[in-house]
Target: dTDP-4-amino-4,6-dideoxygalactose transaminase
Amino acid sequence: MKIPFNKPAFVGNELEYIQEAIRIGQISGNGFFTKKCQQFFEEKFSRKCLLTTSCTDALEMCAILLDIQPGDEVIIPSYTFVSTANAFVLRGARIIFADSQANHPNLDAESIECLITARTRAIVVVHYAGIACDMDKIMSLAQRYNLFVVEDAAQAIDSYYKGKHLGTIGHLAAFSFHETKNIISGEGGLLVINDERFQKRAEIIWEKGTNRTAFFKGEVNKYGWVDIGSSFLPSDLIAAFLYAQLEKLEVIQSKRKSIWNIYNEGLIPLQRKGYFELPFIPDFATNNAHMFFLVCRDGETRDKLIAHLKKSDILSVFHYQSLHQSPYYSNLHDGRPLPWSDYFSSRLLRLPFYYELSMETQKWIIDLIHAFFIPEKE
Ligand SMILES: *Cc1c(COP(=O)(O)O)cnc(C)c1O
Model:
């Protein structure tokens, strides 16, 4: 049996709600289910939320909202997905890459201050694996230097920092519902607007630079082109699918947390023997069971373990390659080495993780990992 790395979960009323959207007869953006999804998050977060076609799009909206201009500097971890940086590069920003912590891929809050210059406009944090960055430190730094903070909360649904939901702490935040995340709609995302100053303009950018939203609310008597923008709002068919998932958030999360715990308990003995490190979760953070990763002692061991599992048709995968070393940005990077980002690029391994993953399969994967590090003597 082939064990994929990820498998999208279909958990309830997805098809029924898509049919319902068709029956209602409006499947373009900002329809019945879009409003239901936004309401779900607005109640949860007490913030204005806009559904987007992806987290990438929500991040692009952030860059527009912050009015990032050519030459502005934005501090971003090197260990992240390209979209985190791309959204700001599209507006002409210069990316100043920050390093990861030694014990976690999240950016090292202590390493940011020396990167701030007169041109710095924003810090973008990524809550890797849904584990919070040290937001108090980052927010106080931002306040001191008058910078904006954007949370790339793509992986951070149902996760908290000192009791605050991730994505509600920075000025703006972006979530993802890509099929590799905990809650999915194939492609999909959410912009969370924590600073009310951005609210009106966000609705305009979302609607292709028009004040169409204000028109539908009856605030203006005709709508037209008032700002830049793009087609950032998803079809209501996507929102219908997403709403079915949101209704099952707790079911999905409790299953994922039990999967996470089974891996953790099964692999702790090997961590104690020093074969690898397991995810570190600081006291200020919760674990939303977005992924399960281990950090091998060296890149060669990581690659051999991937090959070892592959022999049994189990797909484990590495993750981000440092963006400061990427073909696109390495020549534009200021040349500082970022050793911890490179460390996780070469050593981190993610194990299969999806809603339907059975306990038996997990036990089998755990046994294979044990056998890799401690081969049975015949
Ligand atoms: C998945 C992910 C994204 C991109 O999300 P999309 O919805 O696919 O655009 C961005 N940043 C991080 C950290 C992610 O994990």
About this structure: The pocket of pyridoxal-5'-phosphate is lined by residues 54-56, 80-81, 83-84, 126, 152, 154-155, 176, 178, 189 (CB under 6 Å).
